[in-house]
């Protein structure tokens, strides 16, 4: 006779996602704004540090793109972890921006390597194929960091689940992208200072979209 051991482990998350309404986009931005308002000073400080890092990388042009590809998943995961801390009413700290470097660096670096290789490959293609490739990269990367950090999905599975979820909600993300472009236009007007607010709001909206499309399944 086989005896069950308790507690019985929960089944592994399989990357299942759901289709949402276009109107949910506005809820994502509202939640992003609320996450920012919970600790605006810390969020703006993290954004400044992020901008300084990216500006510093730009000093060496040929190195900047490669380094940015590797760092993007790590820094994005740090922002998402910070969003979760706010959601849980935990104390938000500037160092949370680098939280993923300590706990999830291996898988996130693999995501960055994938991003880097695909971007390099895209430079060898024509204009239209490159645009399509960039779109697929964006869809694959969008939720990949969150799925790897929060759901422990392997990098390849996280990329697949992210792409599938975004394609399932293509119209929703088209609306999200258009609204984000408009917001970026206005954020850039006061010599870019608006990004100190918009950056954290967008990070919060990405976290909200992840919670809506995956956690609510």
UniProtKB/TrEMBL annotation:
InterPro entries for the chain:
DUF2189 (IPR018692)
The superkingdom listed in its UniProt entry is Bacteria
Which Pfam families does this UniProt record tie to the protein? DUF2189
Keyword annotations for this protein, in alphabetical order, are:
Membrane, Transmembrane, Transmembrane helix
Tell me where the transmembrane regions lie.
Answer: 33-53, 59-82, 94-118, 130-150, 170-198
Q: What is this protein called?
A: Putative integral membrane protein
Q: Which organism is it from?
A: Candidatus Accumulibacter vicinus
